[in-house]
Write a structure and sequence with these properties.
This protein is α+β, with helices and mostly antiparallel strands and 337 residues long. It folds into three domains: 7-70, Arc Repressor Mutant, subunit A; 79-283, BirA Bifunctional Protein, domain 2; 290-332, SH3 type barrels (Roll), CATH 2.30.30.100. The protein is built from nine helices and 14 strands. The strands form three sheets. The chain has a seven-stranded mixed β-sheet with strand order 3-4-5-9-8-7-6, with helices on both faces. A five-stranded antiparallel β-sheet has the order 13-12-11-10-14, with no helix packed on it. A hairpin with a 5-residue loop joins strand 12 and strand 13. Helix 6 (163-180) packs across helix 8 and helix 6 packs across helix 9 (274-283). It is elongated and about 80 Å long. The mean pLDDT is 89.
Amino acid sequence: MLFPVNIQNLSKIEAAERILDFLNEKAGYVSGEEIVRHLGISRQLFFQQINDLKCSGYEIMAVPHLGYRWEPSCGRLFPVEVRKDLNTKCIGRKIYYFDRCSSTMDIAARLVCENPVEGTVILAESQTKGRGRLGRHWVSPKYKGIYFSLMLKPAVAPSQTAVLTFLAAVSVCEAINSFTGLSCAIKWPNDILLHNKKLGGILTELEAELDRVNFVTIGLGLNVNTDAQELLRTAISLKIASPGHKEINRVKLLQEILRRIEDNYFLFQKKGSAPVLDKWKNFNVTLGQRVKISFLKGHVEGRAAGIDFDGGLLVRQDNGITRKFMSGDVVHLTQKL
């Protein structure tokens, strides 16, 4: 079921998750009367909240004379499970969860006007209109990947926010290496590669005024337990790359990603872009290569000579002129020099 997404429904789910928190603390079934008494709500509101949870994908058992029980399904990215032992100060303070939605970026765009708490995460088990850069579709098989949007409010000028794309990519690579032992790479500006195939992508959208950032939303699509037949030939998943094709614990991997993002975000706020870009250089596979950058008005070829302080790619053309690009579709024409 596709739960209708609007601000009112998001608030409903947030309130209803108090029931999950209570059920999660109990063993076995809990009577509706006990839940109502503990939460201090009416029975009518209780039934409404149970329905809201079911519509959003939570499986809650109800047995006459016994009460209610919620047993988290193995591997589902339920906020109660993600928050457990997360131990972050900012990232994940608020988590919205959807069994299916159009796009987590769409939901984040609607939340901006509500001035949400910094660090808010919107999670989806599947997306019907998941998207990447340049309007490309991102395939989001249900219960297989990690698809989320993260809302940040950095105290920086709008021109500095492009670095957050690099920050997110670095964090994902660090988390994957720490959790699985697999070594990923980053293709400028936002592709996460494994064995020269696409593992994930990052999309960053900005809500800002002339001199002030209101919100930066970072979206991540990551192929975790996706099977080969569900992917393009140019893509890969962590499961496919893992020894024995073992399934990855998505909850624990997501937790590690969020922790790494927070660590790098605090580093960025304290010391600026330089430490983040230094980390990015250790993962990148673009610098030193001959590249072709395509954009609306044509394309440019040259050697990827460096990265600027704001994340811009410096390309040295054959005529000796170096140009800076903040966006564009990059194709590697040669191996790294």
